[in-house]
Amino acid sequence: MSTKKWLIDPTHSEIGFKVKHMMFTNVTGKFQNYSASIETEGDDFENAKIEFSGAIDSITTGNTDRDAHLLSADFFDAEQFPEIKFEATSFKKIDEADFELKGNLTLHGVTKQVQLDTEFSGLMKDPWGNTKAGFIISGKINRKDWNLNWNAALETGGVLVSEEVRLNIELQFIKQ
Fold first, then answer.
1. What is the value of pTM for the model shown?
2. Is pLDDT of 156 > 80?
3. Is the pLDDT of residue 102 over 90?
4. How far apart are CA 135 and CA 102, in angstroms?
5. CATH number of residue 97's parent domain
6. Which strand (E) or helix (H) includes residue 67?
7. DSSP 96-161
8. 175 with 3: CB under 8 angstroms?
9. Model confidence pLDDT, tens digit, residues 19-51
10. What is the pLDDT of residue 24?
11. 155 vs 3 pLDDT, higher one
12. Which residues constitute the domain of residue 154?
């Protein structure tokens, strides 16, 4: 079987995250500049080689002041750590549509293993004859595991920004 290369279609993909603010509402954000690729044996994605990188300075939450704070040394320190990277160590099929994705996430100068739930949406041909594959990835990480420690205490108790970060990722890949 021959190795197939798949590249992300950024116009039909979104790398998003969600964090609780003041312990009761969520703030969402996303990366605007990123790349990702998958290498498979044929059209079977089990044990695929998966890589992702994103530019930290492309994070947007829809608020310029908040985005500037996220890029500062209080959070991501984009000047010192300009990139987030993920490299899969395993991609295991659970059932027809579900996979368990494990890999090394490098963020803020720290690399840790993460496990993410992945739904394979299937293969489809677009109107121009390209074969596309769709994936929905979700999971949670604790930002403090990557030394993203900034916070502020609230008068009523609790903290301004939760430690838990939920990942909401929708990906479309094009077979090369």
1. 0.88
2. no
3. yes
4. 15
5. 2.40.128.110
6. helix 64-71
7. SSEEEEEEEEEETTEEEEEEEEEEEEEEEE-TTS-EEEEEEEEEEEEGGGGT-----B-TTSSBSE
8. no
9. 766 566 678 899 999 999 999 987 789 889 999
10. 65
11. 3
12. 3-175
